[in-house]
Amino acid sequence: MGSFEILRALGCSKQLEVVLVMYEDNARKINAVIDAINPAIAQSIIGLGRLDSMFKVHERLQKNAWVGVLGDRALDGQGFVEVPFLGRPALFPAAPFRLAFMLKRPIVLMVGLYRGGNRYDLHFERLCDPSGIDRSRRAAAVEEAMQLYAQRLEHYCREAPYNWFNFYDFWDGSAR
Predict the structure, then answer these.
(1) Contacts of 61 (CB under 8 A, 6+ apart)
(2) What is the pLDDT of residues 143-153, one digit of tens each?
(3) How far apart are CA 86 and CA 144, in angstroms?
(4) Band of pLDDT at residue 162, cut at 50, 70 and 90
(5) Which residues contact 97 (CB under 8 A, 6 or more apart)?
(6) Percent of the residues in the chain that have a pLDDT greater than 70, as a whole number
(7) How many CB atoms lie within 10 A of CB 128?
(8) How far apart are CA 43 and CA 135, in angstroms?
(9) Are 20 and 7 in contact (CB under 8 A)?
(10) Would you state the pLDDT for residue 26?
(11) Residue 32 or residue 99, greater confidence
(12) pLDDT tier at 175 (50, 70, 90 boundaries)?
């Protein structure tokens, strides 16, 4: 929802490292454009589906980086939870939430909404803090966090519908 690049720019202006965890195969064309403009940006992307991906995430978190994960993509169509979204049941991947719970890191919704010209509205909302959640309650807490995520994402989709970028049919499950 919105622009990850504007969030990265904010991080740079505040001297914070902002990293995006993503499936690079899903974004080859945009990555080629970004790489042509600024090859250093590649250092702020952690590609998923590799043996060392989670080690890199953990390493960046240990260095106090902000790690962003796209909350509507999954690898090999596994681990989805159905939640209400825009009036219909929708499948969202549980992996980003499970990862945050395993690492006991707060889940923060970060949204950069384009408002025209050079104007963006940036929103940061702490959805939950898994640090105090007992392992026996983890699965239920993950589902609660995912429902809250879907509710807040729906709020921003209604506020700025042209900022929700999906280059596949979200409702038919083709990205899964």
Answers:
(1) 67, 103, 105
(2) 999 999 999 99
(3) 17
(4) confident
(5) 107, 142, 145, 146, 149
(6) 80
(7) 20
(8) 33
(9) no
(10) 58
(11) 99
(12) very low
CA dist., res. 22 & res. 86, Å (int)? 24
Q: What is the C-alpha to C-alpha distance for residues 24 and 28, in angstroms, rounded to an integer?
A: 6
Q: Which phi and psi (to 5°) does residue 48 adopt?
A: -85, 165
Query: pTM for this one?
Result: 0.82
The DSSP output letter for 42 is G
Q: What residues are paired with 2 via a beta bridge?
A: 112
CA nearest neighbour of 142 among 75, 74, 93, 76: 93
Pair 91, 73: CB distance under 8 Å:
no
Phi and psi, residue 134, nearest 5°: -70, 145
Question: Which residue bears the tokens 């966090």?
Answer: 145
Q: Which two tokens stand for residue 60?
A: 């960046």
3-state SS, 67-116, equals EEECCCCCCCCCCEEEEEECCEEEEEECHHHHHHHHHCCCEEEEEEEECC
Q: What is the separation of C-alpha 162 from the centre of its chain, rounded to a whole number of angstroms?
A: 18
Say what the pLDDT of residue 171 is: 59
Cα separation, 2 vs 111, in Å, equals 6
Considering the chain, what is the average pLDDT of its residues? 81
The least confident of 24-28, 77-81, 161-165 is 24-28
